[in-house]
Amino acid sequence: MPAAAAIKVMVVDDQTSMRAMIRRALQDLGFKDIRDKGSATEALAAVKADRVHLIISDYNMPEMDGLEFLEAVRKDDVIGKTVFIMLTGSADKEVVQKAAALGVNNYVVKPFAPAALKEKIERVFGELV
C-alpha cells in the first residue's frame, strides 16, 4: 500500500479553479507533493525536468489537449510509464477509447466527488494509506 504522501502528482488544467479543487481533494486524501500547470506544454516540460508518479490532466485544453499530452508522455522513454488519469467533462466514448488506445491508466468524468478521484487513483496504485 503506497502512502499518498510519497506520491508526486502533477495536476494539469487550464482552469485555475479546477486545479485548486483537485489540489484540495488530493490534500484531503493525504497527498503532499502536488504540482500544477495551466497547460499541457508547461506540464510536459516540468515532468521531464522533475519526474512525478501521477499526472492528472484535463482533456479539453488549448494548445495541446489531454490526448496529445498523453501521447507525448507515452512516447517519451523517461516519463513514458508515468501513471496518467484523464479528466473529461463528458463521458464521450470516442475520447475515452482514444485515451485507452494511448495507454491512459484511468479517467474521471467532471464534475466528480473526491471519493471518485480516490477510487480511480487506488485502482492504479492500490489502497492509499
Please summarize what this structure is.
With 129 residues, the protein is an alpha/beta fold. It contains five helices and five strands.
Describe the structure in your own words:
The chain has 129 residues and is an alpha/beta fold. The protein contains five helices and five strands, in the order E-H-E-H-E-H-E-H-E-H. The chain has a five-stranded parallel beta sheet, with helices on both faces. The protein is globular. The N and C termini lie close together (7 Å).
Task: From the structure above, extract its key features.
alpha/beta, five-stranded parallel beta sheet, 5 strands, 129 residues
Please count the helical segments: 5
| Alpha-beta content class | alpha/beta
Q: Rg, please? A: 13 Å
Largest sheet: 5 strands, parallel
- The helix content is 40-55%
The general outline is globular
List the helices and strands and how they pair.
Blueprint: E1 9-12, H1 16-28, E2 34-37, H2 40-49, E3 54-58, H3 66-75, E4 83-88, H4 93-102, E5 106-109, H5 114-125
Parallel strand pairs: 1-2, 1-3, 3-4, 4-5
